[in-house]
Design goal:
Elements (H helix, E strand, L loop, with lengths): L14 H6 L2 H23 L10 E2 L15 E5 L2 E5 L4 H8 L6 E8 L11 E10 L2 H22 L1 H8 L3 H7 L7 E3 H9 L8 E3 L5 E3 L1 H10 L3 E5 L21 E6 L2 E8 L4 H10 L8 H9 L4 E7 H8 L22
Length: 340
């Protein structure tokens, strides 16, 4: 009989007691450990160091402006307004000024949305920033995902098979030859708009640009063999820090879709202060909270690119599962006091 998620998080009063004896959560525990170990080994081989970073910030990477993809979590610490980080990307960019090979970390990130099948209020983020352009970081992401997949096949195959019954989806990615397929947002919209019930796959953003729905992401995956890069979104659909292509209309960004949909998001950053200020204005975001970021770009202009992978979404793919709330050892939900 296959191991199934017990959904004990639905009753947070005794989840922590029941999870201790659950085969499902033992598998999650072991997979998290393998991801940590493999990540360390991967970056050691590339001589890219880890960096210690705070989880509080006054400069969130997804401000409430055009292109925001999450709601910030604002808290008061000793009567000072601050935010729990939705990403420490800006600090990773800072780390690139200290070490030009880049840097990485795995830390919790916080989002203001309610948890559901696809989203968590708190999740673990594997993020890195390197000196280079979009193609460079896309190469790094593919190498990282394949490295993780091979490591997990070697160390966690039995646990995963007890849930999924097979390992073919992991083997496909681990030993994929050549580059993962790539489709621009414009190409994806055109491709899916030709299908019956296209409105399920493509939607029009309030800014007027077309984008994919979650069903659209899944359909794109079906059409492209289970893993695909979705690239070059309209610039107004992504946060202000993403660099633009030569037209100024498209972002130099890419989402790697597999499993539930987007698992990794990556992009190229603005090179200097002038580009940052221009983008802030276009996205209708004030400069005040980003003054330090702008000064860094002014004094130390540098071309960097980075990515963030949601670890729980990666776990969903490994286990062929459909509810991300089953992938937290200890659940967290905004507005609830959960023990422990």
């Amino acid at each position: 009989m296959k191991v199934q998620a017990p959904r004990t998080w639905e009753n947070t009063n005794d989840h922590f007691l029941k999870a201790v004896k659950s085969p499902w959560y033992k598998i999650i525990f072991d997979l998290e450990n393998s991801i940590n170990r493999a990540t360390t080994h991967f970056y050691e081989e590339k001589d890219i160091p880890s960096i210690y970073l705070p989880i509080t910030t006054g400069s969130i990477s997804s401000p409430m402006g055009l292109g925001s993809d999450s709601s910030p979590v604002k808290v008061k610490l000793f009567d000072v307004d601050t935010y729990l980080a939705d990403s420490m990307q800006f600090m990773l960019e800072y780390g690139c000024r200290m070490n030009d090979k880049g840097c990485y970390y795995i830390l919790p990130s916080f989002r203001g949305e309610a948890a559901d099948q696809r989203h968590l209020c708190q999740f673990f983020h594997s993020e890195a920033e390197i000196c280079g352009k979009l193609d460079d970081v896309m190469t790094l992401v593919q190498e990282y995902v394949q490295y993780l997949s091979k490591y997990i096949l070697e160390h966690n195959a039995d646990g995963i098979k007890s849930v999924t019954g097979d390992l073919s989806h992991i083997e496909q990615v681990a030993y994929f030859e050549g580059k993962f397929p790539q489709v621009t947002m414009a190409e994806a919209v055109e491709e899916l708009s030709k299908l019956e019930n296209a409105e399920e796959y493509v939607t029009k953003h309030e800014c007027g640009e077309y984008m994919l729905t979650s069903k659209g992401e899944k359909k794109l995956l079906e059409n492209h063999g289970g893993i695909v890069w979705l690239t070059h979104f309209p610039a107004i659909l992504v946060p202000f820090y993403q660099a633009y292509d030569e037209t100024g209309k498209l972002a130099l960004n890419a989402d790697l879709l597999f499993g539930i949909g987007e698992v990794v998001g990556c992009g190229e950053r603005h090179y200097n202060s002038e580009e940052v200020v221009d983008s802030l204005n276009k996205h209708e975001v004030g400069l005040d909270e980003y003054e330090w970021y702008n000064r860094m770009k002014e004094e130390y202009p540098m071309k960097t690119s980075g990515f963030g992978m949601g670890i729980e979404r990666f776990l969903l793919w490994l286990l062929k599962h459909d509810d991300i709330r089953d992938c937290q050892l200890l659940p967290r939900s905004n507005g609830k006091n959960i023990i422990p």
